[in-house]
Amino acid sequence: MLESYVTPILMSYVNRYIKNLKPSDLQLSLWGGDVVLSKLELKLDVLEQELKLPFTFLSGHIHELRIHVPWTKLGSEPVVITINTMECILKLKDGAQDDHESCGSSSTTRSTSEGTKTSIRPRRIQQTTPDPDLPPGYVQSLIWRVVNNVNIVINNLILKYVEDDIVLSVNITSAECYTVDEFWDRAFMDISATDMVLRKVINFSDCTVCLDKRNASGKIEFYQDPLLYKCSFRTRLHFTYDNLNSKMPSIIKIHTLVESLKLSITDQQLPMFIRIMQLGIALYYGEIGNFKDGENEDLICHTKDVLGNISGLEDEIGHDMQYVSSESHVQQDDDQQQGWVSWAWSFVPAIVGNDDEEGDSAGTDDETATNQQKSPTVKDPVVSIGFYCTKATVTFKLTEMQAESSYYSPQKVKSKEIICWEQEGTTVEALMRGEPFFDCQIGFVGCQALCLKGIMGIKDFEENMNRSDAEAYFFNCGENLSTKGMTYLTNSLFDYRSPENNGVRADFILDAAAHKEMYTEIAGMQRFGAFYMDYLYTMESTGGKGSGNQAEVSSVKIEDLGRVQEMSTKSLIVGPLSLRLDSSAVHRIMKMIACALEHEYEPYSKSKQDFVDGTQAMPSLEEISVLEEYIPTRITNFTILKCTVTIPMAEFNLLCHLLPIIMGQKSSSSFLNTTSLQPLRPLPCIQILVNKIVLEHSLPMYAEQLVQTVSSLNQPSDNLLHYCYAHCYLKIFGFQAGLSSLDINGLYSSPASVVPPFSTAFYGKMLQLPKCWSKRSHVALKECIFELPNLTIQATRAQTFLLQTIWQSWVYIGSVNSPVVNEALLNEVFQSSGVKSKNPLPTLEGSIQNVELKYCSTSLVKCASGTMGSIKICAKAPGGGGKEKLIPLIQGPSDTRDLHSSKWLNESRKPESLLAPDLLAFTIQVPQHKDYNYNSGAVLLANMQGLTVNVDPVLYTWLTYQPQKRSSRPPMQQPSGSVSLGAPVTRKKEDEVSVGSMPLAKQQSNQASEYASSPVKTKTVTESRPLSVPVKAMLSSSESCSKSPEERMKEFIGVVWNAVKRLTLQLEVQSCCVFIPNDSLPSPSTIVSGDIPGTVRSWYHGQASMPGTLVLCLPQVKIMSAGHKYMEPLQEIPFVVQRPILEEGDAFPWTISLSHFSIYTLLGQQMTLNLIEPMGCTSTLAVTSQKLLAAGSEYRHSFVVCLHVDLESLEVKCSNPQVQLLYELIDIMNKVWNKIQKKGTLHQSTACAESVSGPAPPSSPVKSSVGTAPPDTSTCSPSADIGTTTEGESLQGGDDSPFSDSVTLEQTTSNIGISSGRVSLWMQWMLPKLTVKLFAPDPGNKGTEICVVSELEDLSASVDVQDVYTKVKCKIESFNIDHYRNRPGEGWQSGVFEGIFLQCKEKLVLWGRLLVSWEMWRCLPFLY
User: The pTM is what?
Assistant: First the structure.
């Protein structure tokens, strides 16, 4: 009786998936209550067809299948299906062939499948004719109870996936699925009218995942450690139905919980693991098994495949009619994630289970017809899938081969753990309803990373090191579960507070606006704390049109885009994190990157070339209006909150082994000898704090269709153009950096601020499919904007030394031993709290404000523009009474228009306005292609406002600081061979087994020094004896060394010429005024901070005596190209010049004008003395070029440079106080320079890696003689034995036959000069008058001053430089020297002999003679 109903259900499942079964035998065994089937083969084609995955089953079999049916207790005991040892092997499909086979593109395939369906249906109905002895209602309810309580047990499930050399195997010891009650305990349950809920549990025990590498023959030589070993987890399934007769649940929840997940990855497995991850991403985005290369046929196949999934859903429920919603065909082309959603959605009936058979067995033909009519109105269920993990660890291991003790025993793989990632409270949740709504949320509560054991021969974290856990953890983010609680399980089936566990129906937010309002960044971080991601995809239908036929699905039409509004948004938030990039962490991370790059695989999806459809039809106005209303985009928001990055000084640096691998080169040497690391404490470090980082990215969802449509329009709107770009916006808030130190207790000292907090922003956009825009030269391909409102950097000289030490510890590669840090330097930088320094150091503080840069490139030009609002540099020095003095050093913009004359000191001066123009504004435009005719010339427009500079002695104090010579490392801890340094620069000792270049460097330096000191090998050449070098020896030397200075200059001129020959130049630089005092000039508190002229003026009029100050007012500069009209320096880019330069050289002549150049001195008692009166000049620069055919087919330029300079009258004044002031200033600068030079030499010697003292001489005698020694090196080598030098001796060792094919260096140089073109130079200067006035007190008469005036009039000079001659002309029209006296109350009067000292002119005065007397000589001030 019941057998006639239940048996066909079980038989249909078994017969569907298993080959070669006889239904009669199976039916007889089943009626007995138990059936045992052994060695069964699976129907692989059926599995592939139903799963719709891009995988092919290589094999699939079941060792034993048991079915137990309790016929006598069907209403109270479950049917148990047990599978013992099920094994399947899969591989990826082979591209196009499998796509064509599986898509059913031919009508025969479709008709065959339809025929199969129609032939199977009547048989099922015939088999399941109801027994008249049983009432239909009872049968229906009984079958429901049986199906809902089926238990499935799988023992030893083995799944393998093979690809290339990868073998991925998953082994589950046991998996059991059974029905449970509301407390999730095993029970025999039924769906009641009050509850209408079905719960199931699946327990997985001992899941092991292995990832191994096979050889060419398919065998695995060495088995790696399992990725996952014996992990158990449980899954809860919760189905909610609308009513008892529902074929499909309205809500499906599937949640999995793992208590502990321990992953292990070796260096051999890492490339394979990344490959598996790439496979998952490619599957998600539909890049595998999808259409390729724009083939429409494959595209249609893929679309029908997806539509088949949706229609298959209806077939499973029991409908023959294919149901295609109006939304289902739109997103098949470029919205690639929908391939995955469609595939996942096809599993819903299989997960729910068995509704199709129930409908077939219980219904009639009339009921089926009724269901067919109602099928389009079936609502999509809400599906919630969740994965939860309490604690997860990922350990990265390095492997090495280790042989056994006996000779014949096989090698074994030994692994060593080096880095570990720990994660707590992980959640992955997906919520979907059909294809129009999909949401995925990922988050975790906390994570951290730590170093384990040693790396690359350095025992930094071995067991015997006794280092604390805090030192091992280099990354920390989020919180602990102990403090956060179980928030990651909120509303899951494992949360006792969830609605399902309290008998309440759950509500889901399935609207995009409500979802964004509910799941904000704040809510996500409150639930998790370390990381939160929310990915939302929605699709809303706006038009009431039908779905259209399937042929239209081959490409996304513009009208489809308007009918369906799609949106994809990703929000990623990273909570407060701390990262310490010390040597241990950096080397481990770099090692992982190097291991990941050791093996490369072919990408799953090759980047498609820009496909330009030349037959693109013009879109209609209706389609354009649809696009204007809505264009689907993908938006990504990435946020990092409160990020702290610490970069300590490198305790060891062996990146030379890792960087070549990462850069694509082969590693040059093996690992180093194993050494123990002594941690350096205190350890200086750089701390970077960022308050918030926000990255926003958007791009069109259907770039290809959109760009092809918009690019075909004659005048697309700005809105449409905006959506044809990918946009990126980066904002950084509260970035600050400082210096800190890590003490022996693992605590950081309070940071010394170097970069105070600032914010910045960057925006960039890139045009999609640029080849489609080849005819639109004005459309920007790339555009970038950078904004920096304010940036300040402040540091003492000791802090810069420490920064330099940290930098050099990372840049200088190859040291095993720890560096040595100066203890006095650390004490100076990190002063103890409450302890005042005896000699506090001055601090330099520089700031720039309102920096804006913009870059744009089109198919024709590249252009950039920018502004810088202001720059200020000042020094903070300790002052009297414990107060700090503020000494301005550089200020810009500054009004320097009146500073060329000392009158401004006695006039009222307005303070610097906040609305002052930007200090710097520029625009530059360069052509992309040099051979393009129209507007091919480059343009440079620049304007710089005035700048004031104060070269204060506090700057000398800052520059000449030198720390005391004390080392922070005790002598007992120093490794043997290391040297304690006085300078704060890292000293390193090369390990002899390190990079292989170290012994080579020593060998070369020893040879070179031996060569240099030997009297036999050292050769010098006199001027009369040219050095002969064989051609082969010259060719063997490096190319850069073989070039003479003359040729280098000519090459440089050629490069400059190529840059300026078509350059439209407009340059305007306001005057720069430099104040050089001989004592410090702190800014008074009454003056605006940083105002240098105001500070000088207040000191000039102040009560205290002003220190002597030299004022150097540099000229105002204006340069203009020929024929160019003035333009604003800041232009909207790209722009068009009114007169573009087409021919090279048309930009010349340039007009260069200099004005307001002066030098004067400020002395005490408000005394102002001029050195050079304000003057200027106007010059014209013209350059012409002619191409000359050089050797071969190369062309070299011949240049003619003409420079004409018209100078204004020059008046020079000098007196005793000025000479004294100049002497003092020069003496101070000379001493400072000598100190800096001495310190620089010390730095070079201490930073030198070799043990040889002094710089290493050249490694090759031939190279040194050719590349570095000019022909007259005898003057540079005083110890050389000139008399013994012969040409034959100089050639020894250069070639076996030195006199064959030899050419002198002079001949070679002359040949190079001819081949590189000629340079002709003509310069002319015109000076109307030169006046020199020398003032001095008369020693014989107190209060009397003497002045000697020298005048030269009409000076002109010209220089003509040609290849064969150089001609210089000078002309002076007149030359006079007069002298004057200034007695008290009389004013200036001519001296004796009418004041005439010397007169030289065309027509002399009547008494004009050369008068020389003792009185005249006394007039010369330099004698006193």
Answer: 0.79
